[in-house]
Amino acid sequence: MRIVDIISKKVDKKELTEEEINFFINNYVNENIPDYQASALLMAIRLNGMNDLETTFLTKAMLNSGEIIDWSFLNKTIVDKHSTGGVGDKVSLALCPILAALDLTIAKMSGRGLAHTGGTLDKLESINGFKISLSDNEFKNIVKEHNIAIVSQNEKLDPADKKIYALRDVTGTVQSIPLIASSIMSKKLATGSNCILLDVKCGNGAFMKNIDEAKQLGKLMIAIGKKLNKQIAVEITNMEQPLGKAIGNKIEVLEAMDTLKGNGPKDFTEIIYSSGSTLLMLANKAGSEVEAKKMIDEVIKNGKAYKKFLEWIEAQHGDVNLLENKNWFNPKNKYEIKAKISGYLKIKSAIDFGIVAMKLGAGRAKKEDTIDYEAGIYLNKISNDYVNKGDTLFTLYSSKEIDKSLENEIMNVIDFNEKPYKIDLVFAKLS
Q1: What homologous superfamily is domain 3-49 in, according to CATH?
Q2: Beta 392-398 vs 376-379: how paired, if at all?
């Protein structure tokens, strides 16, 4: 078998066999296939696609390229939730402790943010002392004792994805639905989860720009899950505007904490209840969405969800006393953007808010950039709020001096309407 023949086969739009896909993955990981040949095959896949079976074979080969975490000693269903990334997306910080408080077991590996999308790990690392790198034993022991842990990705898991993703990033092959699906699914399955909720963000602030692409990706990941005997559900959610009122790191942690106390923004709370109920039903903990939402409501109202959050943060060495101190979020500089006219606010672009937050220091333009945990944006007003001239619309925060021209970047992507408009937060649920 030769890699050049496999490349030619896919160039000719033919279906690859499991043996051919295994040959490619095994030899590329072991450095027997050079980057230029791997790039040629990835471009052929990008242009000519893969069917569901090919994509399943690719996912399986990537999954088996490294270790797979074994949770059988717990004799429990392991649940996980993955988001394709967006602006103000702090869902994991609130959802995971809610599920853990309802006796689901969450063993999650997350990534960092890049450009306009915030990373869960960056938000957690803004908590003083929080440890994202744990040994296998530490990870398993915390999950066993507390039902929850979120850690950085283990280098031993899915090495094929690490190599292929780095290559896709520089060869124009990122926007390929089979390659996106196999990347997400191989990583999620390597963590040993049985039930996985995939939150596919859709809109200008997400990688999936339209609903048809998002549904295609969602259906493909469900098909892969079924072929590999895993329970998969997909929610396609709105990323045309930021989620919640906070964009940044510390500021998003605080919003997640408020939500766990029952005081979160309406849109963010709605997503938490939607995603939580989907996972509770997927794991057979609830028989209906109504029952699941009542369960979530109860652990928020009785304080168990917030208590579990603090327990989890402390288990991973975070300083909860400092976290609960009102001076924990204490940026040196702030700048308020005021409304120049009155009307119902409409935010037209999530990505522009994410880029401004990045420029303030809350995100990275390059992987090696340093995060300013105090930086970010607070949306004093969100879409469909009525605004009077002179009201504060948004507050910018940073440890460095704030460039006043950032106001223009934000003002260019908002409008004021005479009437409110309809906003769908969850476009579709697939299972």
Answers
A1: Transferase, Pyrimidine Nucleoside Phosphorylase; Chain C (1.20.970.10)
A2: antiparallel
